[in-house]
Amino acid sequence: MSKAWTFGENMNTDEIIPGRYNITIDPLELAKNVFCEVKPEYAKNVQPGDIIVGGQNFGCGSSREHAPIAIKGSQAKCIIAPSFARIFFRNAINIGLPILECPEAVADITEGDDVDVNLATGEIVNQTTGHRFQANALPDFVLRIADAGGIVNFLKSNDIEELMK
Amino acid sequence: MGTLIEEIFSRKAGRPVQAGEILLLDVDYIMSHDNTTPLAIKAFRDIGKPIFDKNKIVLHLDHAYPAPNILAAENHRKIMDFVKEQELPYLFQQGVCHQVMIEEGFVTPGSILIGADSHSNTYGALGAFGTGLGSTEIGVAWVTGKCWFKVPETIRVELRGQTQPGVYAKDVMIHIAGLLGMDGGTYRSVEFGGEYIDKLPMHERIIFPNMSTEIGAKCGLIAADDETIRYLENETPAKGPFERIVPVNPRYERVLEIDVSALTPQVACHPDVDNVKPLAQVEGLEVQEVYVGTCTNARYEDLEIVANMLKGKKVNPHTRVIVTPASARIYKRAMKNGLIEILMDAGCTVTGTGCGACIGRHGGVLAPGERALTTMNRNFVGRMGSPLSEIYLASPATAAATALTGKITDPRGYLENI
Ligand code: SF4
Fold first, then answer.
1. How far does residue B67's CA lie from ligand 1's centre (Å)?
2. CA-wise closest residue to B377 among B165, B132, B157
3. Count of domains forming chain A
4. Which residues of A touch B46 (CB under 8 A)?
5. So what's the ipTM on this one?
């Protein structure tokens, strides 16, 4: 069972992880304080594989990578939102945190719903409401980065050209 | 066949590409600065492979430079040690990164530049693709020389007419930010063109791609033309021949047409860049600091406007007026032509080059309750210091008029010297 955690529109990187915690880049340390002001119960209760459901323009604000690193450190499986801020979008992909754009699913899901996501096909099933949604499938190269655990790990054992094979 | 970004990417990919495709492309230069380089060094060390091509890496110390505290000093130390260790040829310490990138000839039409700084979009003024990325990707590019891009859709901003005296490119761009909004350009390439842009000199053109970041754009582009080539040949060491890449039968997602002829001076008000008002609506609002600086508006011509307006006058005695030339080259030219003396005689504090007060670490930090009128590009809450301070964005002319009165002031009453 993957529980959905919902967040509002224009969630900025400071709300994801306030600047004062950015003195480390250790994912597990950052995860202890992720969303600490907007949803303090998240960090305490999140289970591996849970799903973040965000609003429009998720991850706006500074280009700091601590925000997606903190979410990944919390072991969430992926983020679904209607749209992401541009640099957050790239940073998330590069650290191996899958992100899906699907406004219809976001409108359907409420906090605590049981949501299944197939990252390879982009299929999202809200088991609680019984509704199915189709996000754009993640490009293969994104899945390759996610499988490797991020672009840095990918490059340890591959050449960059292998991303696009 | 396509928009300017599709044309630029098609040349690099060696085949026609369209919006929506994902490409892995060679990059021409990889830029980072004192704020973002340390994390890139970490990614680089984690990957554990050698640098692909040292000549593609350009580093700058500009954000908190010279170091205002020990943490900043440690950052600089780390970067300078790395430069020595890796024998990197390009480290600059004499100006705002984006200005120096252009002045030193790294930016040419059709080239691809990535930067660990959100305003790397600036390079689009010369018909280059420039975009901001996180530090990890910069470390990755040091090793691979490549970066992946999704070819973006394009919003075309078509500008007609001529601005009135006292109204500048900055006013036009602030107006556009108000129309499109803070996320109006997200993931998009924003192409600026039309007769207004065609007639605009390079120092004013730069403002549009620079502030395309404020509307969330992946890049802001202006097609290279005679003015671009003139600028490159006369003012930079860049070696031609330069390619003139233009849109060919483009399909735009959206076209925004604006006639600038009737536009009045504009101000982006606290706390958002799209909280835009005609100056008349905020005229008379008291300010405690006027800041002329940054990659947006601290070029020679900007300092010239300010100096001409302040010549023989005194700035308001209750206002701090700080001028931070964007680069040493600009500073020297301003000194040679007497601008610095005029500014100092008028009561301005002229600082060393760099980002200065822009990020609230030094060079003009705001106290709680203070309000600043600046020539910057963003006015996030707390950007210049206290979260209880306010930032208003405007043109250098508006900054000069405001410096004289200590209140937000329409520059059109002070133009007799220009
Ligand atoms: S001047 Fe300001 S906006 Fe420009 S690069 Fe420096 S900190 Fe960024």
1. 16
2. B132
3. 1
4. 152, 156
5. 0.88
C-beta of residue B384 within 8 angstroms of C-beta of residue B364: yes
pTM of the model: 0.92
Angstrom CA distances, A88 to A16, A64, B275, B377, stand at: 11, 8, 24, 20
For B173-194, what is each residue's pLDDT tens digit?
999 999 999 889 989 999 999 9
DSSP secondary structure letters along A3-51: BEEE--TT-BHHHHS-GGGTT---HHHHHTTTTTTT-HHHHHH--TT-E
Domain that holds residue A65: 2-163
Cβ neighbour number for residue B42 with a 10 Å cutoff: 16
pLDDT single digits (tens) A22-71: 777 789 999 999 999 899 999 999 999 999 999 998 998 777 788 999 99
DSSP per-residue letters across B143-155? HHSEEEEEPPPEE
pLDDT, mean over chain A:
92
Closest C-alpha among B396, B164, B170, B414 to residue B309: B414
Could B118 and A87 be called an inter-chain contact, meaning their C-beta atoms sit closer than 8 Å? yes
Rounded Cα distance, B354 and B375, in Å: 14
Q: Report CA(B357)–ligand 1 centroid distance (Å).
A: 9
Domains, chain B, in order of start with CATH, read 21-150 (3.30.499.10), 152-240+250-263 (3.40.1060.10), 268-413 (3.30.499.10)
pLDDT in tens, B372-414: 999 999 998 888 999 899 999 999 999 999 999 999 999 999 9
CATH of the domain at A140: 3.20.19.10
- Ligand 1 contacts (CB < 6 A) are B 63, 96-98, 117, 119, 294-295, 355, 358-359, 377
Task: Quote the ligand 1 centre to B295 CA distance (angstroms).
Answer: 6
